[in-house]
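How a chain folds remains the central question behind the approach discussed here. In the encoding step, the backbone of a single protein was reduced to a row of integers, each denoting a local shape. We regard such an encoding as a compact summary of how the chain folds. The sequence in question and its structure tokens are set out directly beneath this paragraph:

___
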Amino acid sequence: MTKRAKTLFAVIVVAVVIISYAVVSFVISIQRVKTIDEYIAELKGDNAILRFEAAEALGKAADKRAVEPLIHALKDKKENIRSSAAMALGKIGDPRAVEPLIDLMKAVSRSPKAIAAWALGEINDKRAVEPLIAMLEDKTEYVGARIDAAKSLGRLHDERAVIPLINSLSDDSPFYRRYAVASLGRIKDRRAIDPLIKLLEDDDKNVRMFTAKVLGEFKDKRAIEHLKTLLEDSDLSVREVAREALKMVTEDADKKGADGGKH
């Protein structure tokens, strides 16, 4: 084959590849989008792959017609489908799913119960508070599920969770302690301030950083001297967060002092 023929052949190959890609892209673009009813039918079908994909699609669509079929799917024999259904129900946010999701938290499988705890926080229904606290306080429970319970209790903003979350600050898992701190920051109950101040001495740098940030958001002057000690922390990120938190607290204290002086 001559050099010119080789060049021509290469050009033809490239052209074929480009045309093939364009054709495939066009076919994909004109594929018909499935309806909610079709996804619901697939969710009830025998094909496990289609059931999983249908649960995901129904969650993205957030159509309330899918709530009851998804609740039924929480009892699917496949763990990944139960998890996908729980996540979809969390995205839809319909209160009809609360009790079934609470039941799912009692499951043996780790992933479904953790996602159920997350979904209950998304739905934001007070019926979930006590079951989430029970999961939070169960030291034998999978730590990932307990973390999701802690996060959801923060979203629910219920004062019943304050003491259980404070008790969680001494948990062995630093990941868990961080999320307990974050949730106490969301609830903003001042009973948490002194326990959070003690946590500024935690061995885990991320726990110290989370705690400093939350104390800054509380803007309580009791934290000032303790935040100052973190300005000498061995970790740069902790020092920076502590500096910003201290600024928030002192500026708020100065403002309140100035306002008080006017009266």
